[in-house]
Design brief:
92 residues; two-stranded antiparallel sheet; 3-stranded antiparallel beta sheet
């Protein structure tokens, strides 16, 4: 199922994709929560984020991950229609 939205192709709703040619944002997702549909761009282009937790992860990277989640907890809790939710899910 492919979805066209404002001139951009998506694999489907709530399926993030990379945007390597975008000037500032690294990812985009067509978020759908109930009847609300919203295109959300998130993530800093070229930023070295923590990514998925790795076995033997360094304390600096663990602290970086915890800081992000604590700093954005309120926005992450807003759900699928917030950039923080997708950044937490995809990048952290």
């Amino acid at each position: 199922m492919s979805v066209d939205y404002r001139g951009e192709k998506f694999a489907g709703y709530n399926k993030p994709k990379r945007t390597p040619k975008h000037a500032t944002k690294s990812h985009v997702v067509l978020a759908k929560e109930g009847s609300t549909i919203k295109m959300i761009r998130y993530g800093e282009q070229g930023a070295s984020t923590a990514g998925a937790p790795k076995k033997g992860e360094g304390s600096k990277m663990s602290a970086k991950r915890r800081s992000f989640k604590a700093r954005h907890a309120k926005n992450i809790a807003k759900g699928k229609c917030s950039a923080a939710y997708w950044a937490d899910k995809e990048k952290w």
